[in-house]
Design goal:
By secondary structure, the protein is an alpha+beta fold. The protein has two domains: 143 residues, Gcn5-related N-acetyltransferase (GNAT) (Aminopeptidase), CATH 3.40.630; 158 residues, Gcn5-related N-acetyltransferase (GNAT) (Aminopeptidase), CATH 3.40.630.30. It has eight helices and twelve strands. Strands 1-2-3-4-5-12-6-11-10-9-8-7 form a twelve-stranded mixed sheet, with helices on both faces. Helix 1 runs antiparallel to helix 2. The longest helix has 15 residues. The protein is globular and about 75 Å long.
């Protein structure tokens, strides 16, 4: 039976939205204890919207696998900036085939089309986040050269007032930006996976350039930018959280972008105090979840994530393409 790969056309959107919605309801609702039907409806609406707002051909692509004239799977990809290196990558938002089509070549053909599109965009990295527990998808990707890079974590926001101990907590101001930038700079090498094939110096320079471009957005109402300061005046640590929507379920969340503690202050549980402050901010905003991502080679941050109650929701895998 002939299998072909092509661009999505408007008549495919009913199929794409139904398949993507079913997958989201089945695999993406459980970790947040959401209604699967509500998640399914949200994702279907999202995917259907491509009919009125087609993908930007320079940054997005919706690809369909077709067997004998009937759609059997699709891939939705975006060209984005990778957060730990500052390099462009192709994010595979969805790569889904009908259950009856598994192990018949549709998934491999879609992935090949994704790699071809990445080459067309002159991008050397692929990334994909899969829900924890889908072992078939993990095996499929690892067989094709992907490696586990980061855990994506989530937890319910809890209303608890921080116990500052000998620390003073305060919101960051524009005058604090040089200190925040320094903290961010020191955090970048620890978040870098060695298989990304980029030096810490290059990654740091790229990420700082992105932060500098976005510095004005740090003072928006939807950004939590906090310092912990010792009574002596020592900058003990800082934290940045950003309110955004989870792309597949539509649930609001505060994304923990970066937390830094000075080496001299780590025994004071500075990071935990900052995390409690982030929770309080999140609850007061009416946001139900806090999320974050941690590189699997960053052992201290993995331990910290578990300490403050995060659970694994998705596994982010990456692949370097031959260039």
């Amino acid at each position: 039976m002939d299998l072909s790969i092509r661009k999505c056309v408007p008549s495919d959107l009913a199929f794409v939205s139904a398949l993507g919605g079913e997958f989201a309801g089945k695999h993406l609702a459980g970790h947040r204890k959401l209604d699967p039907e509500a998640v399914c409806r949200y994702r279907r609406r999202q995917l259907s919207s491509y009919g009125s707002a087609p993908p930007d051909p320079q940054h997005d692509s919706l690809i369909v696998a077709e067997r004998e004239g009937t759609p059997v799977g699709y891939a939705l990809i975006r060209k984005v900036v990778e957060p730990t290196t500052g390099l462009d990558q192709v994010l595979i938002e969805d790569l889904i085939v009908e259950e009856s089509e598994r192990r018949r070549g549709a998934g491999s053909a879609l992935l090949k089309a994704v790699e071809d599109k990445a080459a067309e965009w002159n991008v050397g990295f692929l990334a994909v986040a899969i829900p924890i527990g889908i072992e078939d998808s993990l095996a499929f990707l690892e067989k094709r050269g992907f490696w586990p890079e980061r855990n994506r974590y989530v937890r319910p926001a809890v209303s608890r007032v921080p116990e500052p101990r000998s620390l003073v907590l305060r919101r960051g101001t524009r005058e604090d930006y040089p200190v925040l930038r320094e903290h961010f700079e020191k955090s970048i090498p620890h978040s870098l996976h060695p298989k990304r094939e980029i030096t810490p110096e290059t990654a740091t320079a790229r990420c700082l350039a992105i932060l500098d471009q976005a510095r004005d957005s740090l003072y928006h109402d939807d950004v939590f930018y906090m310092f912990a300061i010792e009574e002596t005046g020592l900058q003990a640590g800082s934290l940045i959280g950003i309110i955004l929507k989870d792309e597949h379920t539509g649930t609001p969340q505060t994304y923990l972008l970066n937390v830094f503690t000075s080496p001299e202050c780590r025994k004071q549980r500075v990071a935990t105090v900052l995390s409690d402050a982030l929770d309080l901010f999140t609850v007061r905003k009416g946001i139900p979840f806090v999320s974050s991502e941690v590189t699997l080679t960053n052992t201290p941050s993995l331990h910290y994530a578990r300490t403050i109650g995060f659970t694994e929701e998705r596994l982010v895998l990456a692949k370097v393409l031959c260039r």
